[in-house]
Amino acid sequence: MMPFSAAGGLHLHPSAPELPGSLELASGIRWLRLPLPFQLDHVNVWLIGEPDGWTLVDTGIDAAVTREAWRTLFRTALEGRPLRRVIVTHYHPDHMGLARFLWEEFRPEFVMTGETEARARFLLKGAEPELIEDIAAFCRAHAIDRVGQYTDYVTGAGYRKMVSGLPGDITCIDEVTTLLIGGRAWRPIIANGHAPGHMSLYCEELGLLIAGDQILPNITCNISVQATNRDEDALDAYLESMHRFTDLPEDTVVLPAHGRVFSGLHARIDAITAHHRASLDKVLAICAAPRCLTKVAPRMFRRKLEGLNYFLGLGEALSHLVYLHNRDEVVVETVDRVQRFARR
Question: What is the distance between the alpha carbons of residues 197 and 91, in angstroms, rounded to a whole number?
């Protein structure tokens, strides 16, 4: 995998697979890149060779272009050998959207955390009427006028269009489970904040970390508080979880879900932490005058929030507001039934 090229304090792998395509990282370890129908146009998934087939980490989104890519990769990257096991890092569509599709093709064992399974089942089922009423109240409290679109977003209407369904059988694991993959021990590292029960995998023998969305080389993952998790201090959970990764060696090679493979783990963790600290300072400045959530979010980001990014931006802004409120740095006042956040 070496040498890497230096850029922005990181050491980036000098190349990446075609989209779609595969690249041999090391003997028995392949980097696959699958298309996404978004501005972020790809997701990385990982193949690890087994004596009788392959273990795959993550699946890609359920879309016609991704299914077609997989049908080609079955012949090329997989060399016609079967998937024996699929490990899902977390429930988001680009990571488990084709779970049912791959299960029907190969009947592999599916491995994920219990939180990942529970969240996927919730979104695939849809919400009960009582929850719909709670979401409407949440929208009123935060002056969100796109109530129908927001409700669809947090209850899975869009999710169900991008996820083929759950596999027939699921093995749930936790942090005490050591997985034998490709004849080597891989340790799960489970973190919250980006997604409940998000699982990364670390192989000490190889010095490799399959990071999922937890640590990305060029962008930061979305940290959201939404109507369906509004009591969770998601940003605190995410920042606290980084301590589980700073214990790994600095020269660990990181296999991220988006962007290029890189080394420089500690430097990237420091940069991500600094990014969120700067965002907290920015939110505090925005709240010099009392503002509701829908007035804070547009001021927090440089780009205009449109489409899905509007709801992601609201969630990210609220996670920072909750973090500050829990530390008594902002207060919440209710005016005309709308919550407004003000710097203390």
Answer: 9
